[in-house]
């Protein structure tokens, strides 16, 4: 393997079989869509194919997205139609596209990609679900054999052309029996290919179901053509790729821009429109594709704008349509198995080769077979579990999710996302207003004890509600205002609290205002007019106050008629976390004492030589019988930060060598990120994933699996600022299958002995136990070609 990071990023053949399937299937789907979009745009048909080739090869080579595939997109149809009407010629449109590409490159340099960070995740998930629903609805006419609308616009009620209702009504009166039969057969094959009997088959599991569907569609139609030509599919029912019979024909397919229009102001207005729409759609598609990525990679958005700009510049120069990242093609590729950018490069390569070598063969593929692939893709984007997950997330997530879906279905992609984002912003402001503070009132020793805990972000919007609470504080009370968890407190709020403190003395109200960070001691000294040592003691004494409040709360709950009795059941969870005091396990997951078994160490590491952890793990699995083990890291982890930055030799840095190994293993991915903070946060996630791998290989977990005991392993990251837990969705079976190690050895008295078969684990040095081996197994990285056996 090359030691050059750039080479490693560009020529990563780790998932070649998966990427080949993804690139090939997305290519099959892209051909008719490229032609349909060109037709709907009023442009030359081959301009759509050119844009698809450029999107695969140029953008695919320059982009740092692992899964995104670019090409002409239905959302740009109206922009192209409007530009052609304004400019009057396709050559002038090409020039506008070149200018638009340069504008996108400038937007990337200006770091405009940050706009995607302001779209709520519920809106992104709503966008994916809406696209899935549209794909399902738009394939119904094709399943019946009606293939007049090949552009597949992402709107059920487009401003131009037929609505889905009209298409369905027309399709019902024009049912094509052969197309319907091919569609039903294709759906049956795709459903069968999702079953365990196929997935576990040694040979069939390696053949993509989509390829079987396409081949069956061609074979069935050719058989019908041979035995009953009247029922065979022809014309618009089949893919219609331009046939190139000579080098001159191929050369004539490409055209240059009309540079005489450089002084035409309308060119630059059209370019601005293309650049803005294409950039926004690309950022949204990238965000959505990253959300689907099973490996949870993050695309640098500013770099993506530059890659999209370069693609549009090249497409404009050689006669192509505007292009952008296309979520439909990307999701089709992902569902077919794609895992790296190699799928996009193969996608573009297949498009180019198909034009040159076998256009007639592709023109035999029925639309009905491709429609079945798109319908299954749509179902996976809009499956019922997605709606259930959002519903479980609460009202504030479910409403923006549903509104985004309805708005996209009723209007179009960009307008729908804008409406969904506006609703999401409303709920953000609403929650900010409602959760700016939490009020607690107890009576301790006959004196009112009131505590106001301020939220993370306290703005001027919260001033009225806080003033209302302060106005109702009774005389002779003790008021504690806790702002230690607040990242921001508006100056208006601070002034209101200071004013209340000045007037509270007249009502014998004792006020303690606690601030976070370096202002903590200073604020105490200012409030109580005491010296700094006394202020330090006040901070210490606050611990005892907290304890008394906790006891009071427990006593109050125990007297409450609805209080639940304490349980003596063994805990079902083992929590392996960082020893950072800011990540209290029982608080972040809201559990009572006795519900979670906890182990902590610096940077939440799982190391086979750590006898403390191994003892805890064995006791939790064998004695307590826990059913879930959670490895929980957190953003802001000091251990990970030290591992990244500290070269010093000490016990701590020796312990953190495990994190540095993770950093070295994923060096290519980390270097692709734009800022140190992004690299740091990603390393926190990668470290959790690596510890889950290590945990999965421990003897206690292996024994549990061998005895079929219910044991689930999870990887979490806690965001202390947002107060939320993120499940990294680590699928150990799937992820281990993607990290097969071809070499493994057994340690015997006479040395290392090579074993056959495949060991499912990351390529690193581990000592584990496996079935029918008679001893520990050592898996090591691939050897050098000239190295003796057993030498890494």
From TrEMBL:
Its EC number is 4.2.1.1. Binds 1 zinc ion per subunit. Residues 656-683 form a coiled coil. Residues 16-403 form the SLC26A/SulP transporter domain. GO terms for cellular component: membrane. Zn(2+) binds at residues 578, 580, 634, 637. The keyword Cell inner membrane does not apply. It is a multi-pass membrane protein. Its cofactor is Zn(2+). The keyword Ribonucleoprotein does not apply. One of its GO terms (biological process) is carbon utilization. SUPFAM superfamilies: beta-carbonic anhydrase, cab. Keywords: Coiled coil, Lyase, Membrane, Metal-binding, Transmembrane, Transmembrane helix, Zinc. GO terms for molecular function: carbonate dehydratase activity; zinc ion binding. It is found in: Membrane. It is an enzyme of class 4 (lyase). InterPro entries: Carbonic_anhydrase, Carbonic_anhydrase_CS, Carbonic_anhydrase_sf, SLC26A/SulP_dom, SLC26A/SulP_fam. It comes from the Bacteria. Belongs to the beta-class carbonic anhydrase family. This is carbonic anhydrase. It comes from Hymenobacter wooponensis.
């Amino acid at each position: 393997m090359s030691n050059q990071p750039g080479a490693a990023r560009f020529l990563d053949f780790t998932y070649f079989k998966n990427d080949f399937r993804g690139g090939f299937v997305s290519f099959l789907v892209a051909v008719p869509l490229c032609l349909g979009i060109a037709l709907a745009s009023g442009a030359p048909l081959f301009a759509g194919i050119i844009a698809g080739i450029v999107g695969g090869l140029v953008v695919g080579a320059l982009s740092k997205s692992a899964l995104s595939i670019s090409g002409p997109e239905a959302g740009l149809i109206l922009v192209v139609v409007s530009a052609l009407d304004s400019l009057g010629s396709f050559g002038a449109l090409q020039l506008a596209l070149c200018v638009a590409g340069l504008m996108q490159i400038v937007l990337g340099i200006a770091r405009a990609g940050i706009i995607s960070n302001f779209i709520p995740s519920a809106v992104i998930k709503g966008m994916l679900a809406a696209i899935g629903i549209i794909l399902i609805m738009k394939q119904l006419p094709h399943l019946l054999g009606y293939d007049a609308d090949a552009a597949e616009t992402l709107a059920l009620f487009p401003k131009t052309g037929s609505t889905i209702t009209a298409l369905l009504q027309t399709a019902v009166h024009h049912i094509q029996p052969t197309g319907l039969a091919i569609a039903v057969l294709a759906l049956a094959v795709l459903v069968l290919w999702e079953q365990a009997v196929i997935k576990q088959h040694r040979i069939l599991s390696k053949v993509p179901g989509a390829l079987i569907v396409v081949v069956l569609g061609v074979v069935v139609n050719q058989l019908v053509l041979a035995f009953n030509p009247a029922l065979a599919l022809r014309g618009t029912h089949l893919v219609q790729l331009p046939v190139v019979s000579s080098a001159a024909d191929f050369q004539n397919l490409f055209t240059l821009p009309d540079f005489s229009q450089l002084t035409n102001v309308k060119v630059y207005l059209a370019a601005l429109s293309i650049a803005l729409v294409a950039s926004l759609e690309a950022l949204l598609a990238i965000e959505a594709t990253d959300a689907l990525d099973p490996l949870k990679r993050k695309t640098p958005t500013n770099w993506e704008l530059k890659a999209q700009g370069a693609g549009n510049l090249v497409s404009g120069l050689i006669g192509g349509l505007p292009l952008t990242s296309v979520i439909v093609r990307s999701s089709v590729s992902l569902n077919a198995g794609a895992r790296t950018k190699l799928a996009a490069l193969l996608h573009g390569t297949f498009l180019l080769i198909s034009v040159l070598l076998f256009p007639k063969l592709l023109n035999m593929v029925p639309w009905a077979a491709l429609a079945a692939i798109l319908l299954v893709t749509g179902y996976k984007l809009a499956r019922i579990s997605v709606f259930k997950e959002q519903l479980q997330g609460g009202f504030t997530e479910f409403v923006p999710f549903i509104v985004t879906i309805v708005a996209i279905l009723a209007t179009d992609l960009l307008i729908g996302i804008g409406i969904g984002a506006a609703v999401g912003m409303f709920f953000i402001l609403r929650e900010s207003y409602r959760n700016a503070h939490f009020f607690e009132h107890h009576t301790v020793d006959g004196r009112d004890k009131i505590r106001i805990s301020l939220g993370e972000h306290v703005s001027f919007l919260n001033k009225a509600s806080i003033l209302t609470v302060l106005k109702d504080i009774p005389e002779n009370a003790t008021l504690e205002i806790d702002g230690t968890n607040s990242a921001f407190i508006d100056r208006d709020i601070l002034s209101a609290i200071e004013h209340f403190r000045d007037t509270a003395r007249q009502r014998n109200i004792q006020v303690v205002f606690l601030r976070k960070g370096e202002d903590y001691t200073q604020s105490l000294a200012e409030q109580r007019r005491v010296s700094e040592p006394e202020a330090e003691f006040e901070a210490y004494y606050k611990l005892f106050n907290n304890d008394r409040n906790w006891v009071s709360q427990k006593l109050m709950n125990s007297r409450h008629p609805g209080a639940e009795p304490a349980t003596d059941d063994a805990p079902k969870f083992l929590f392996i976390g960082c020893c950072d005091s800011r990540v209290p396990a029982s608080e972040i997951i809201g559990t009572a004492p006795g519900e979670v078994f906890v182990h902590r160490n610096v940077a939440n590491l799982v190391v086979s030589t750590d006898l403390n952890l191994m003892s805890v793990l064995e006791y939790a699995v064998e004695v307590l019988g826990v059913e879930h083990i959670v490895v929980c890291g957190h953003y802001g982890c000091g251990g990970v930060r030290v591992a990244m930055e500290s070269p010093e030799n000490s016990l701590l840095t020796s312990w953190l060598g495990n994190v540095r190994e993770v950093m070295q293993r994923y060096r290519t991915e980390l270097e692709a990120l734009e800022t140190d903070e992004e690299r740091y946060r990603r390393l926190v996630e990668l470290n959790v994933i690596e510890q889950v791998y290590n945990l999965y290989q421990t003897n206690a977990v292996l024994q549990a699996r061998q005895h079929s005991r219910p044991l689930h392993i999870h990887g979490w990251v806690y965001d202390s600022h947002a107060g939320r837990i993120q499940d990294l969705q680590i699928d150990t079976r799937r992820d281990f299958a993607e990290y097969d190690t071809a070499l493994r050895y057994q340690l015997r008295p006479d040395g290392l002995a090579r074993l056959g078969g495949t060991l499912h684990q990351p390529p690193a040095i581990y000592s584990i136990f496996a079935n029918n081996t008679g001893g520990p197994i050592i898996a090591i990285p691939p050897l050098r070609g000239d190295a003796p056996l057993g030498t890494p």
